Amino acid sequence: MQAFPDADALRAPSSLNDLLMYRLSRAMRAGNGMATRMVEGGFGITRREWGMIATLAQEGEITSSTLALHLHLDRVRTSRGLRSLVEKQLVERRQDSLDRREVHVRLSASGVQLFGKLFPRIAGLNTDLLAGLPPAHIEIFLQCLQHLEHRGSELIAQGAVVEKADRRAGGTRHRWPERG
To answer: How many CA within 13 A on the CB side of residue 180?
Structure first.
């Protein structure tokens, strides 16, 4: 296992291991890998589809645009995921009677049933990951997460990164290596 950075190293990174986002990504991969195996191997849905199912279970019927916002996904990815969930009969769609461009989505009875089986297992994994952390440390961790989310939103609003990803044009495949 790689050496863990201290607070000074996080404030002034000098290596990959000192980068906050790298450390968060490593921590997320540990849990996400298990969750992905659980949802894909045990329930036949993707992690993105699980996010949609869980959001719909929590929010009830919402528009596909609202679902995309909740999940921080673009409309194309949301539409693909919903199409797959409709084919699997886990989600139902209906067009808005007043605005035909708007699509409302909700869990079907099968989707509700799947959520009821899967959520306790995901929640158990969450509990297992936190095992051994004192409650006071969990509270501090939650405060730190809240700060990072808030600060990330501030930086986005300030335009801290001016570059834009252009995935519709093939992303970096068409630009690499940089020319000229």
So the answer is: 1
- pTM for the full model? 0.80
Contacts (Cβ under 8 Å, ≥6 apart) of 115? 53, 54, 57, 107
Q: What is the mean pLDDT of residues 73-88?
A: 93
Distances (CA, A) of 148 to 12, 140, 159: 17, 12, 16
Q: What is the pLDDT of residue 167?
A: 62
Structure tokens at 106: 């909700």
Residue 125 burial (C-beta neighbours within 10 Å; 0-12, 13-18, 19+): middle
pLDDT at 6: 85
Query: Selecting from 1.20.1730.10, 3.40.50.300, 1.10.10.10, 3.90.79.10, what CATH number does the domain 7-131 have?
Result: 1.10.10.10
